[in-house]
Amino acid sequence: MASNDSDNLPDFGSSELGTKEYWDSAYEKEVDNFEDIGDVGEVWFGEETMDKIISWIEKCPEVKANDPIIDLGSGNGMMCIELSKRGFSQLVGVDYSELAVMLSRSVAKAEGCEEVVFETGDLITSERPNQCTCLTRKYKVVLDKGTYDAISLSPHDSQSAQLGYLATVKDLMDSDSLFSITSCNWTKDQLTDFFKDFKLHDEIKFKTIQFGGKTGSTYTSLVLKLST
Asked: What separation in angstroms does the CA of 27 have from each of 93, 97, 146?
């Protein structure tokens, strides 16, 4: 993946996980479950992974409690909600599923975190500037926990989707912004190659597993900065 030309992008093949229809259906069920029994639904990659990312943000000396933070593909909103509970005050979650946004707003209200903003927005559009209000601003921290993975599985021209996502991330960042991306599909080398206009700032470590005599991590989680 030496360049950002679409001919050089790897392809995992399509999956229903890369479709809006899949997520709309999933969140429709989760909205019903939350209304019926108060179940907030699945935390993508698990609560332990989310906690490690948030703990890194808490300990990072470059990030202040009032810095703007955006979660891309925010789902049920739990990343932003947990950040709010830990004292961060300028939080935005964006998702292309209106049902996910509906769920996250309901969960935030129930958790006493109504100050968190959730919006419906398109992360892969080629339209610049992006028309979604929250995607027209700059953030200190841009978060992705599995969203780039899902975009890469899109059955509708995943390569264009990846490049659109890349452009959106860059639009959201200043020279001192941090981009935290966590993936279960991509290796460290693949991520740093695709995000070639970024430099590696840090790496969030997870549990390692052994298979076939080799040791590896369940997830890859990098913190990147735009190259200057």
From this structure: 15, 8, 16
